[in-house]
Specification:
heteropentamer; A mainly alpha; B alpha/beta; C alpha+beta; D alpha/beta; E mainly alpha; A: mainly alpha; 12 helices; C: alpha+beta; 11-stranded mixed beta sheet; 3-stranded antiparallel beta sheet; 23% helix; binds adenosine-5'-triphosphate; binds magnesium ion; binds nickel (II) ion; MetI-like (chain A); transport (chain A)
Chain lengths: 335, 334, 549, 345, 308
């Protein structure tokens, strides 16, 4: 298993590099223009100068390797320095966002907390809701609970989050005034009250995302439980005199979780690119927001960097999913 | 009909039906038998004759739906198992009645260690703590003949060979020293040398622990070797029931007779051709109103198509459900 | 009023749904960045809400009369107010002004407001408080450099290592510039949130009234409006591009009010004078070598203009936030031509007549045909809900006079980009008509009018760069513009602007639609806000205060 | 016997499944599922292969048909060497050699009708018309005793015995000469086992087929096979004509195997003396040094732990690999004589 | 004969030459109530968008400025939008595109995903490269990719196929190329398990070449995960299409697809919720009905369930 993991890791590095190169070339080809979002009053000569100052004069491969060097060495050191306070940040240019003219790494570091709070929680709660729903729907297949569950999850999947989000805001912020409609990214949790405020401000976006995520995951959970409920070992467990709870929650669940856990693991990278629409509706300026804004203004260094991190996460979590599979299911051997 | 006596388990008129989309399947019809203390009852019969379903009905292990126990009573320890609540049944399963399932490959949970699975009933029924349960698990594994038992507790089922898995299943069933052990084709998947090891073990256990055993198999050789009494099932019904020597020596039911003839042997004369029972097993889609074996029976006559024969005693403790009298070679009277 | 003190109003919440990406306006050029920076960084003089020049860091506006502007119109001398301090307590000197010029004109710096300093020969510090700007040429309007929110003074001390290529690397300075304005940045997160605290060294001792400001960014226009009008979470929301009914309904709650004022921003349709048929060779497509087969005829252009119901467009798209117009230059009011009101009323009959005259006959399906060719136009614009509604309305109007319109909407980033590789940019204009809005900075439309001069059109040889988007070409116009560019007399300039406007508009070279107001929303609990379309909306931020009940 | 034609000749067949470990996927070991088998099968005869679960019987069968890419050795079928042929080249040979699989449920695609399953080889190797194929399918169904009306049913609707018949019909479709039956009866109950075995025998009589019959049921093998090979851990430990083997097993493993078979007669059962083997089968990836059986052998000697016994012909047609018979004068010698006497029984 | 193993032989069935197995599928499908309801709804939706405009002959682009933002009335059964266009007509007309794009893009995506999944699962050598390609596509930022596709291909496609078909193909292709990855992963996982099945080995022993092993034995058995992907795929294709059109990468703005109507209604959610609810309901209904059809089909395609 260890060697399998190491081998996969060794392959992961070239994979990520190739992905980053392809993305870089693709962005270079894309028709957007970093000066496209500037007011039309700015004359074209000035625009051209701005483009030159962004380094667009260099050939694309030169830019790529510069970026790669900065991405793989300088940025991590700076982020590490920022987190630990050590004085290890190397000199030399960092990856600068074309739009904000500031290091991309710093912006990403700023945005991770919101993303984790909101999108991460949304995912987490989605899972927490989905699992029991999936388990019960399968255990009582074709009961009214199951039927309603199917219906709701299909609706949850096909109704866009901007609809649910706006409805939530109207009901809970405008009419009832329970929750703030806008997320305060500067809020720090220091004590109980501030924690309560944090809970209130993430309540709605988390609810919206949780509904969406739960819809998908509960389907997987249900299918997987159904596969396992009829297995022979379930009968063995019953024959041992174990209670239904133990039978379902220990024996069946553990087996059913195997595919679900991998589905969940593969879904985690998407947490990091955020839930763009939900972030926008609730003004949660997370990574998703950073990405979409960067795309709109053709801020390619930003897009490239986020994509790169995303690619790493995807490759990594695919690997984790496979390894988890092996750990959860002792029958699987990787060699 | 089995005589009533000091039996551990007494089954009367058990009737189990599977309600499926395509209609009911009458898998078990009016099955009655009893089990004496320390006795080994062998159950044989063709595939699909309801052996497994009968046994699982006893302690409510059939998936419901589709399974439904429609009638009958199962007396165990002064209680009717069919009327017990789910909770009481759970307390009884594993502690008083152990069950070994037909397919050892899939009957163990693949993601838990063997040790965990053996210790589970110990901790639940005997209230043992972890350490004591572990010790007992080691003893059990040694009892069923798995070498290096304490090390193997932390292995997963897939790391065991088929024969070892079957022995683990037996260990689990024996964990709480049950009064009754039901073993459903425990050796069918194994090769003969390992089967022989297990048969030895069972004989041993019976002597040591004095438990009653129900042993389901197709293999008449196995029955001949270990059983005290035998029950032959056909089409969801008991075709013949009696002491093993008596039944093997004087099979009363045409199905039993045919069955005996199909088996080749490693010893003695080699027959040029195997005997077969022509025809197909019955469909079980309706409540039987006629003899289920009549379409394949060499001695069938009118009455067989009109009436479902009930069990008649042919000699001491030996009964059969047939209108044909093997002694006279003609229809039975009464 | 007398008891208002610095900081007495407490905290102010501002929401910019298009978030601010940097605090250095020179490195961004966006209006939102300019607005945010304007509460920290200030110019020497700015325009007030009426468009009048107002001294800001100086005591008076230099003019010919007071000798501040040289007789030869080639230099202007500014004198800083005495005792001005940067927010870090150091004095503001003329060297800072000179440095600001150097910073923005550095060839590698990529300064967005470089054009403000165009035509300058040099900037000299005469003494600590006096600075003179020398122009290369006669400059009748010398009030571009250091005037208005786009041309602010930055501190030399802070930015001196940030010249040229190093400009973007000074992240700390770019995110928290030291300024003379009423507020100081205490926390800046790009594209997210800015926190300001009052500047202790601000020159007016009682101001600013608000102690702190949270300047939130992100979300969407709807949410921003809702936060002001419905939940009261925000006190001020910028740039609410929403349907009039939506705003009206929200405003009805009474928690906030809409602030609208009209500047030079105008929504228009450009008509293409060149043929953009894909069958043409790539280096000739969309150039003056091939005049447009349909739109070269002024009668067609006029018909298209007359068929449009501008009042209706305004009502549907902007409501109180727009005004139908037929002018190219719509503001300042004095420069808006009074001669072109004829197009305000839709005149289908006249339009039909014109097309009949031009030889376009109605075909069986109602679409006009001439020489076997259908009167069919491709009409493109950027993606934006109001513009798509406009497209639909105009399509219907034109359909009525027998013109078939194919619509296309393009992502704004691509449409307004200048990538020569993309065929979808407004510069390439590979369509027959396109719609967008444009404006000019300050109050002087000269550079704006210059755009329509012959030879300034985008073409293959210039990598499709150029500002004469519709490839208009009229010698008379060019001559008249040259005259304007030399004329110092304000009255005469005004006449010339109107004449140029009329010439362009009456040629139906493009079709003005709606003069768009700047739209923001303010909570009813905030006072002192004065909407300004000529400068930053936050030009008088120091004077905003909380209304106590 | 010798004058009969050899249809299948297998020499030193090895099938090792590689175990790769390490970052570089270095090949660090082998599962020696089949480790040096040599045997012949004569035209028209049935070779039985017995042995316990996991000893490599199925692997051997599949390797002989080249369903695996073998590690080494030669396989000659009908005079054609197929050991090294590519899969596409083998395609033409397929009609000659067919296989009936161990698990009748698993080897039938649950989504195909019986007609489609039986017709698949026809689709692949003939260009007959639809009607002609259908004709042949019905013919095959008749041959294996399936009612024609079952043609449109799916495998799940059949009993185990019927499913096995479908598998047999599929194997017969192209008129093969050689069929490998991989435990065709293991999954069936007694009465159905008998049906299948009878069917196989009848087909052999009618069509002159050659079988390799893999099973762990010694009584069935005794019934059907002409010669029997006993495998243990990837090797043949004993190969002999059927009666010779059953009457006088030489190898201790064979002896244990035969003694372990229960007898359906309770009176016989009570008398039988069993050799109960102790311990478990070693792993094929790490076989013991010396004789593979030395860990469980009741007659184990020192030499067994050192040297792998040679596979030798101890009597005409009777091969075994055991040290017991390697030195003349040992306990094994008289048995060999006895065996010779019983040869033509 | 009632108690032999085989059910009473139906005289029609006996000796009937093997018929196309899709008949069996249909027979079984008919017994699945949910699936039938789903099919009925789906057919109604198709009728609604195909036949609807012929019955309700209102031009979806017709502006009635004086009748803006009306509620339901006889003239406008579902009311009008902010330009006074009839919502019913727009939904019917727009549904054609949405449903067509949903189906075609989903289908294309499934084909690509299945192909990659099968190749990766079946051929060991291709597994790793293809899965890395899948990773690549998962990581690619969607929007720039679509922008490039549009820039590169729109004009060419428009010239060869005409504007609307060109755009249609482009959109379907763009959605497909960015949505196949999930399917590929799932299919690969199943194929990995399936190819070890004995009946695949059996097919090899018969001499069936790889291609037909895949089409005949493997593909039909991965149908059920594919069916799930199809259900989810239709929903996301419809939504993605609207996002594309909305960004100006898709259909011209006068094509009222469901997604676009939904997006446009978004700002008016408070004033005129019906404008969001109707297209939302239609999309959900389509997805739900496809889901139930998928369920039924999955059951029907599985002969083991069929018998029950
Ligand atoms: N879950 C079920 N649903 C429907 N019918 C069932 C179910 N389980 C068993 N049956 C039917 O009940 C009958 C008896 O089955 P049972 O498993 O008891 O046979 P058996 O005698 O144990 O056979 P074997 O020797 O093959 O184990 C069979 O006809 C079978 O088809
Ligand atoms: N594809 C494979 N990869 C690795 N090992 C394999 C493979 N196939 C079989 N083996 C191993 O080879 C050995 C022989 O397996 P095989 O299936 O031939 O046994 P068998 O004699 O047919 O047993 P059974 O009676 O259970 O069918 C086993 O240890 C098995 O684990
Ligand atoms: Mg059974
Ligand atoms: Mg095998
Ligand atoms: Ni490992």
């Amino acid at each position: 298993m260890l060697s399998y993991t190491l081998r996969r890791l060794a392959f992961a590095i070239p994979t990520v590099l190739v992905i980053s190169l392809i993305v870089f070339l693709m962005l270079d080809m894309a028709p957007g223009d970093p000066t496209g979002s500037l007011p039309l009053t700015i004359p074209l000569e000035v625009r051209e100068q701005i483009r030159q100052s962004l380094g667009l004069g260099d050939p694309v491969m030169v830019r790529y390797f510069k970026w790669l060097y900065m991405m793989c060495f300088i940025e991590p050191m700076h982020i590490l320095a920022g987190m630990t306070g050590w004085d290890i940040a190397p000199d030399g240019p960092r990856i600068l966002s074309w739009q904000t003219r500031s290091p991309v790494g710093d912006i990403l570091v700023q945005r991770v907390p919101q993303t984790l709070w909101v999108v991460g929680m949304g995912y987490l709660f989605g899972i927490l809701i989905a699992l029991p729903i999936g388990v019960i729907s399968a255990y009582r297949q074709y009961s009214w609970f199951d039927q309603v569950g199917t219906f709701v999850s299909m609706i949850g999947f096909s109704v866009p989050t901007f609809f649910t989000g706006v409805v939530f805001i109207l009901v809970f912020s405008v009419w009832l005034g329970w929750f703030p409609s806008m997320y305060d990214t500067t809020h720090n949790v220091t004590n109980w009250d501030s924690f309560l405020f944090q809970v209130r401000q993430i309540a709605m976006p988390v609810a919206v995302l949780a509904l969406f995520n739960a819809s998908q995951i509960s389907r997987f959970m249900r299918a997987s439980m159904l596969d396992n409920l009829n297995q022979d070992y379930v009968r063995t467990a019953r024959a041992k005199g174990l209670g239904e709870k133990t039978v379902v929650l220990v024996h069946v669940l553990r087996n059913s979780m195997i595919p679900v856990v991998t589905v969940i693991a593969i879904g985690i990278p998407t947490v990091f690119t955020g839930a763009i629409i939900t972030e926008q509706i609730f003004r949660v300026n997370g990574l998703g927001d950073a990405l979409i804004r960067a795309i709109y203004v053709s801020d390619w260094p930003m897009v490239q960097t986020i994509t790169f991190i995303f690619a790493i996460l995807i490759v990594l979590f695919n690997l984790i999913a496979d390894v988890l599979y092996g750990i959860l299911d002792p029958r699987i051997r990787y060699d | 009909m089995p005589e009533t006596g000091l039996s551990v388990l007494q089954v009367q008129n058990l009737k189990t039906v599977f309600a499926t989309r395509a209609g009911d399947i009458h898998a078990v019809n009016s099955v009655s038998f009893e089990l004496q203390p320390g006795e080994l009852l062998g159950v044989v019969g063709e595939s699909g004759s309801g052996k497994s379903v009968t046994m699982m009905s006893l302690i409510g292990l059939l998936p419901s739906p589709p399974a439904e126990v429609r009638a009958g009573s199962v007396q165990f320890d002064g209680k009717d198992l069919l009327k017990l609540s789910q909770r009481d049944l759970q307390a009884l399963r594993g502690r008083d009645i152990g069950f070994v399932f037909q397919d050892p490959m899939t009957s163990l949970n693949p993601v838990f260690t063997v040790g965990f699975q053996i210790m589970e009933p110990l901790r639940k029924h005997m209230g043992m703590d972890k350490a004591r349960a572990r010790k007992r698990a080691v003893d059990l594994l040694e009892l069923v003949g798995i070498p290096d038992a304490s090390a193997r507790l932390s292995d997963f089922p897939h790391q065991f060979s088929g024969g070892m898995r079957q022995r683990v299943m037996i260990a689990i069933a024996l964990a709480c020293d049950p009064k009754v052990l039901i073993a459903d084709e425990p050796t069918t998947a194994l090769d003969v040398t390992i089967q022989a090891q297990i048969l030895e073990l069972v004989k041993d256990l019976r002597q040591k622990l004095g438990m009653s055993i129900i042993w389901i198999t197709h293999d008449l050789g196995v029955i001949a070797g270990i059983a005290d009494r035998v029950m032959v099932m056909y089409g969801g019904q008991v075709a013949e029931y009696g002491p093993v020597r008596e039944v093997f020596a004087n099979p009363a039911h045409p199905y039993t007779r045919a069955l005996m003839k199909t088996v080749p042997s490693v010893r003695g004369e080699r027959a040029p051709q195997l005997n077969v029972i022509a025809g197909q097993p019955p469909m079980l889609s309706q409540h039987p109103t006629s003899c289920p074996f009549r379409a394949r029976c060499a001695h069938a006559f009118d009455r067989c198509a009109r009436e479902n024969p009930s069990r008649v005693v042919v000699s001491e403790g030996h009964d059969t459900a047939c209108f044909w009298d093997h002694k006279t070679g003609g229809p039975r009277h009464g | 009023l007398a008891d208002r003190e610095r900081g007495s109003s407490g905290h102010l919440n501002i929401i910019y749904w298009q978030a601010v990406s940097t605090m250095n306006p020179y490195l961004s050029g966006g209006t939102k960045e300019m607005n945010a920076a304007s509460v920290v960084l200030e110019p020497l003089a700015r325009f007030d809400n009426l468009g009048e020049l107002t001294p800001w860091l100086v005591d008076e506006i230099p003019t010919l009369d007071n000798g501040g502007v040289a007789e030869d119109l080639k230099s202007i001398t500014w004198t800083l107010t005495e005792g001005l301090l940067w927010s870090d307590g150091s004095p503001v000197t003329s060297a800072d002004v000179v440095f600001s010029y150097e910073y923005c004109t550095h060839p590698e710096g990529g300064c967005s407001y470089r054009d403000r300093f165009a035509g300058i020969d040099r900037v000299e510090a005469v003494d600590d408080l006096t600075v003179t700007v020398y122009f290369e040429d006669v400059t009748p309007n010398p009030y571009l450099p250091f005037v208005g929110a786009g041309s602010v003074i930055i501190q030399q001390e802070q930015f001196q290592d940030c010249l040229g290529a190093r400009a973007p690397e000074c992240t700390d300075a770019n995110f928290a510039p030291i300024g003379t304005g009423p507020y100081v940045v205490s926390n800046f997160r790009p594209n997210d949130v800015i926190e300001f605290v009052a500047n202790e060294n601000y020159r007016v001792p009682t101001q600013p009234y608000f102690e702190t400001i949270t300047w939130a960014g992100g979300g969407d226009a709807n949410g921003a409006a809702r936060a002001v009008f419905q939940t009261g979470e925000m006190d001020y929301a910028w740039n609410l591009q929403l349907a009039p009914e939506v705003i009206e309904q929200m405003e009805a709650g009474g928690m906030g009010e809409l602030l609208v004022d009209f500047g030079p921003l105008m929504e228009r349709i450009e008509l293409n004078f060149t043929d953009v048929s894909p069958d043409l060779p790539p280096d000739e497509r969309g150039t003056r070598a091939h005049p447009h087969p349909i739109l070269s005829d002024i009668r067609v252009r006029e018909a298209l203009s007359r068929a449009i119901d501008r009042e209706l467009l305004t009502e549907i798209g902007f409501g109180p936030m727009g005004m139908a117009t037929c002018n190219f230059i719509v503001a300042p009011p004095a420069m808006a031509s009074p001669n072109n009101d004829n197009c305000l009323v839709q005149d289908i009959d006249r339009a039909n007549e014109l097309l009949d005259e031009a030889g376009w006959e109605r075909g069986p399906d109602g679409i006009r045909v001439k020489d076997g060719e259908r009167l069919e136009l491709l009409f493109q614009t950027s993606t934006n809900a109001v513009r798509q509604d406009f497209q639909a309305l105009i399509q219907a109007d034109w359909r009525e006079i027998g013109v078939e319109t194919r619509l296309r909407n393009i992502d704004a980033g691509v449409f307004f980009g200048s990538d020569p590789g993309s065929n979808d940019t407004y510069l390439k204009f590979f369509a027959d008509a396109q719609m967008y809005a444009s404006l000019f900075e300050g109050t002087d439309p000269t550079p704006h009018l210059e755009q329509r001069r012959c030879g300034r059109e985008p073409q293959p040889s210039t990598q499709w760069q150029g500002q004469n988007i519709n490839r208009y070409c009229n010698e008379e116009y060019d001559e008249l513009w040259a005259e304007l560019n030399r004329e110092p007399d304000p009255d005469r300039r005004q006449e010339l602007v109107i004449a140029l406007n009329d010439m362009f508009v009456q040629d139906y070279a493009h079709l003005p639609l709606v003069a768009r107001g700047r739209v923001s929303a303010a909570s009813t609990t905030v006072g002192g806000i004065v909407m300004n379309v000529w400068d930053s909306e936050h030009w008088n931020q120091a004077e905003w205060y909380r209304i106590e009940e | 016997m010798a004058e009969r034609r050899k249809l299948v000749e297998v020499r030193d067949l090895k099938m090792h499944f590689p175990i790769n470990t390490g970052i570089l996927r270095r090949h660090t070991g082998n599962i020696k599922a089949v480790d040096g088998l040599s045997f012949d099968i004569y035209e028209g005869e049935t070779l039985g292969i017995v042995g316990e679960s996991g000893c490599g019987k199925s692997t051997c069968g599949r390797a002989v048909l080249r369903l695996y890419d073998i590690t080494s050795g030669t396989i000659k079928i009908d005079g054609v060497e197929i050991g090294g042929k590519s899969q596409s080249a083998l395609r033409k040979m397929r009609p000659i050699m067919q296989m009936v699989f161990q698990d009748p449920q698993a080897c039938l695609n649950p989504r195909m009708t019986v007609a489609a399953i039986i017709g698949e080889p026809l689709d692949e190797h003939t260009d007959w018309s639809k009607a002609k194929k259908l004709e042949r399918i019905y013919e095959l169904m008749d041959a294996v005793g399936l009612n024609r009306s079952f043609a449109n049913r799916y495998p799940h609707a059949f009993s185990g015995g019927q499913r096995q018949r479908i598998g047999i019909a599929r194997a017969l479709a192209l008129n093969p000469k050689f069929i490998i039956c991989d435990e065709p009866i293991a999954a069936l109950d007694v009465s159905i086992q008998a049906q299948v075995v009878n069917l196989l025998e009848e087909l052999q009589d009618r069509l002159g087929l050659t079988y390799m019959f893999i099973s762990h049921d010694l009584s069935m093998v005794r019934h059907i096979a002409d010669r029997v090979a006993v495998m243990y851990l990837g090797k043949i430990v004993e190969l002999a004509p059927r009666d010779a083997l059953y009457a006088d097993p030489l190898h201790p493993y064979t002896q244990a195997l035969l003694s372990a078979v229960p007898d359906p007669d309770p009176s016989v059962e009570a008398r039988v003396q069993r050799i109960i083997l102790k311990g478990d089968v070693p792993s094929p990836s790490n076989p013991p040094k010396g004789c593979n059986f030395c860990t469980r052998c009741p007659k184990v000697m020192d030499i067994c732990h050192q040297i792998d016994p040679e596979y030798r012909e101890l009597a005409p047609g009777h091969f075994a690999a055991c040290h017991l018979y390697n030195d003349a004068g040992q306990t094994g010698a008289p048995r060999t004589e006895r065996n010779q006497q019983g040869e033509d029984a | 004969m009632t108690d032999t193993a085989t059910p009473p032989i139906n005289p029609d069935e006996a000796f009937r030459p093997p018929r196309n197995q899709w008949w069996d599928v249909w027979d079984q499908f008919k017994t699945h109530r949910g699936a039938l309801a789903g099919l009925a709804v789906f057919v109604s939706i198709i009728l609604f968008v195909v036949v609807g405009p012929m019955v309700w002959q209102v031009d979806p682009g017709q502006l009635n400025i004086r009748m803006r933002n009306q509620g339901p009335s006889l003239d406008f059964p579902l009311g009008t939008d902010q330009l006074g266009r009839d919502l019913l007509a727009r939904l019917m007309y727009g549904g054609r595109i949405s449903v067509a794009v949903g189906l075609v893009a989903m289908f294309l995506g499934l084909v690509i995903g299945t192909l990659i999944g099968v190749l990766a699962g079946y051929f060991k050598l291709l597994d790793s490269p293809l899965m890395r390609v899948t990773d690549l596509f998962l990581a690619l930022p969607l929007l720039p990719l679509l922008l490039i596709l549009v820039t590169l291909f729109r004009d060419t496609l428009a010239r060869t196929f005409g504007e609307s078909i060109g755009v249609f193909l482009l959109i379907c292709f763009a959605i497909a190329i960015t949505s196949w990855m999930q399917t590929a992963r799932i299919v690969r996982g199943d194929v990995l398990a399936l190819k070890e099945r004995e009946y695949v080995l059996a097919a090899r022993s018969i001499g069936t070449p790889s291609l037909r092993i895949n089409t005949r034995h493997i593909l039909p058995n991965v149908l059920s995960p594919i069916m799930v992907s199809a259900t989810l795929g239709i929903a996301s294709a419809i939504i993605t299409e609207s996002a594309l059109s909305f960004l100006g990468l898709g259909f011209p703005p006068d094509f009222p697809t469901w997604g676009r109507i939904l997006y446009e209604g978004r700002d008016w959610i408070e004033q005129y919720p019906a404008r969001v609810v109707w297209p939302g309901v239609l999309i959900s209904l389509t997805v739900l009905s496809v889901n139930y059809i998928g369920d039924g089909l999955r059951d029907a395609l599985d002969p083991r369930i069929r018998g029950r």
